[in-house]
Amino acid sequence: MADDAISLIHQVELDLFKQFAKITHQHHIHYIALGGTMLGAVRHQGFIPWDDDMDVGMLRVDYEQFLKVAEQDLKGTHYFLQTPWTDENYALSYSKLLDRNTFIEEKNNVNNARKGVFLDIFPLDRIPDSPARQRRQILDMRRLDSRIYLKLRYNVIDNPIRKFHASLSAEQAETAEDFKKQRESVMTMYNDKAALMNVKNLASQYAYEKEILSLDQLNDTIVLPFEDTYIRVPADYDGILTKIYGDYMTLPPENARTEKHIVRLITDNQEFEL
């Protein structure tokens, strides 16, 4: 059953990625695969078999352009572009392209934001060279993350008390939106410093230094096969993946080959447990 669910998730995610890639191609927007998606393209020519998400990233200016054009291009489709602004209950600092025809439950992620099989779309922002300023920026961002999660009642476990939670009041929604704006200001505070040559996915799950990219790494890309399509990755994928994973071509032990996010999938009136 889990294998069937992963296969269905991969099919939906591949469709989401193709829609994303179509929009980026039509509007000349540059992107790269990130993290496990980059690793999957290099090691498996597609998905890591047990992975249950896809990650792409783009420079903030391209990210903002994508959000603008995608809003128009996706009208009347079964896709939903979930951002901190299109879903008031959504607390994360990046965007997701969702399939409206699916519903998922995630590990340690109980909240009222819209749920569906997704493609993660991350902005990449310039970061300072000074380690002290790097620490200050990420700490300020995480402090605002915490305030937003609290205000939007994000929980790591479900519990009966949640059943009595009403929708957000206008005041709660306004406060959360203000925190989101503050967080975005923190994330983008160095983007006007042209002398800074490194960018980062500030929402990354990896240790801070592991997913710092130079602008050269971001801009110098190649295209690799990914399932029945192609995906753009940095030409220096070896250096990037080695920094993140070490010996990335060696498979992890079998007990570590588990899904990261999704525990239940509903699609086409079928329900799957992972």
Give the tags.
274 residues, seven-stranded mixed beta sheet, three-stranded antiparallel beta sheet, 12 strands, 37% helix, transferase, Lipopolysaccharide cholinephosphotransferase, EC 2.7.8.-
N→C terminal distance: 7 Å
In terms of per-residue confidence, which ranges show pLDDT below 50 for 5 or more consecutive residues? 160-164
What fraction strand? Answer: 15-25%
Using only C-alpha atoms, the radius of gyration works out to: 19 Å
Helix fraction bin: 25-40%
How many domains? The number is: 1
With helices defined by DSSP (H or I, 4 residues minimum), what is the helix count? 7
How many beta strands in the DSSP annotation?
12
Q: Oligomerization state of this entry?
A: single chain
Structural class estimated from helices and strands: alpha+beta
One letter per element, helices H and strands E, the order comes to HEHEHEEEEHHEEHEEHEE
Description:
The relative contact order is 0.19. This protein starts with a helix and ends with a strand. Mean pLDDT is 92; it is low at 160-164. It is an alpha+beta fold. It has helices at residues 2-26, 35-43, 60-73, 131-151, 170-187, 215-219, 237-245, and strands spanning 32-33, 55-59, 79-82, 95-99, 102-106, 118-126, 198-200, 212-214, 221-226, 229-234, 262-267, 270-273. It is globular, with a radius of gyration of 19 Å. A hairpin with a 2-residue loop joins β9 (221-226) and β10. The chain has one domain (2-273). Helices cover 37% and strands 21% of the residues. It is built from seven helices and twelve strands. Strands 1, 2, 3, 4, 6, 7 and 8 form a seven-stranded mixed β-sheet that branches. Strands 5-11-12 form a three-stranded antiparallel β-sheet, covered by helices on one side.
